[in-house]
């Protein structure tokens, strides 16, 4: 799987036109604020239909414009060349795959499995529980369409249950509890297994790259602790109903699950240095890619956005060695950073672009 050509129109500050990206590695070089991250964002948008930087698609439209579009030709897992396009106009987002409008984003997100490494990933380690829930949900949704369906159903029912709680419509809660338990238990089971597999990958990766002697572990702490059946989950929901009515929202369920990272000293976010937290967040994304390869026997597309700048040269080199295989990778870095050639080596089929003022200019001489 790989992108071949990307087409842009009114997307953030990027110049309109097409960019050839048919190589296994694409390096984007430029100073901050020139458009490197915007280009990765456009790729991510084509993979999943949303941005990793904003929830408001209007933010993606170039200042002073009212619409935008991004599109690409790509090679799928079967080696077939296909096309994808996302446009936004008149307040409506439209997705087209091979010229056909797609009504459900689910038809798109399995075509180009993609993992992005971004500066904000440090929130996976030191941020609120929501960030780690989203991380595990992303990981599972990349591989399991049924999990995505369960998550969608759960969120829809939770919204209805919360509305009933706010309006004190207690007669509806028994029905909502049954449905919430049905999908919630399946989500719990999938998350528990995902955490188990992640712990086969993540601790060793961190130990190898960090060399700091800390043994990290991811722990899953479900809201419905001790529940393993729908009946047990329904009982917990019933027991928490009085509290729910008082608080005016559902206080238990998989939307309240927690994942924590610990080591010998306790909660890692409280004891690790900023550098260690930053490294752990990079390793989590690397583990996510390894998890995907393990479960799917496929290599993902990697988008690696200026995340190595705070690592010393030794850790940079080890991180790049542990990154693993990919079907295609896009790297962004500053003009004066040369560590890629020293620590990664140039794999065959690389492209180099200088990014300045939203314009990508190919550099035939590379670094």
What does this molecule look like?
The chain folds into 2 domains: 1-113 and 298-367, Rossmann fold (3-Layer(aba) Sandwich); 123-297, Glutathione S-transferase Yfyf (Class Pi), Chain A, domain 2 (Up-down Bundle). 41% of the residues lie in helices and 22% in strands. The chain has helices at residues 36-48, 123-126, 129-141, 145-166, 173-210, 230-239, 241-247, 268-271, 274-296, 313-322, 339-343; strands at residues 2-9, 17-20, 25-29, 68-75, 81-89, 92-97, 100-102, 114-117, 217-221, 258-263, 266-267, 301-305, 328-333, 350-356, 359-362. By secondary structure, it is α/β, with parallel strands linked by helices. α3 (129-141) packs across α5 (173-210) and α5 crosses α9 (274-296). It has 11 helices and 15 strands. The model has no long low-confidence stretch (mean pLDDT 93). The radius of gyration is 22 Å and the shape is globular. It has a 6-stranded antiparallel beta sheet, with helices on one face. Strands 8-12-13-3-14-15 form a 6-stranded mixed beta sheet, with helices on both faces. It has a 3-stranded antiparallel beta sheet with strand order 9-10-11. It starts with a strand and ends in a 5-residue tail after the last strand.
Features:
alpha/beta, Rossmann fold, Glutathione S-transferase Yfyf (Class Pi), Chain A, domain 2, 6-stranded mixed β-sheet, 11 helices, globular
Give a short summary of the structure.
Helix content is 41%, strand content 22%. With 367 residues, the chain is α/β, with parallel strands linked by helices. The strands form three sheets. Strands 2-1-4-5-6-7 form a six-stranded antiparallel β-sheet, with helices on one face. A six-stranded mixed β-sheet has the order 8-12-13-3-14-15, with helices on both faces. A three-stranded antiparallel β-sheet has the order 9-10-11.
